[in-house]
Protein: Protein NrdI
Amino acid sequence: MLIAYDSRTGNVGRFIDKLAMRAVRIEDCSAIEEPFVLVTYTTGFGQVPDKVMDFLKTNYNYLVGVSASGNRNWGEGFAKSADRIAERFAVPVISKFELSGTSSDIEYFRKAVSGIALH
Structure:
């Protein structure tokens, strides 16, 4: 399964590096024509980054799930971008993780994505 991602501060990039899965940064591709999972950060008060929304406008057809990074200090806004994307594009939230994720977050994500890939 392909992982498409965006990272502003490097936290999502570090999460992706720990996954050791096939991944592409959204700014490095204009179109994805295969199933993919999106991993993004959350900006502002729980918003989806504009660059991510622009990417999804042309690539949502192959989106099968979303995960997001956030900071628990934001309370209800923690990794809220995943919820917003999931609702708008009718895909499941795979996971939410703080900053660059823990080893448990990595393991959970890998298993969840493997489960999606099997279906």
Observations:
- Helices lie at 11-19, 50-59, 80-89, 103-118.
- The beta strands are 2-5, 23-25, 36-41, 63-70, 93-98.
- The longest helix spans residues 103-118.
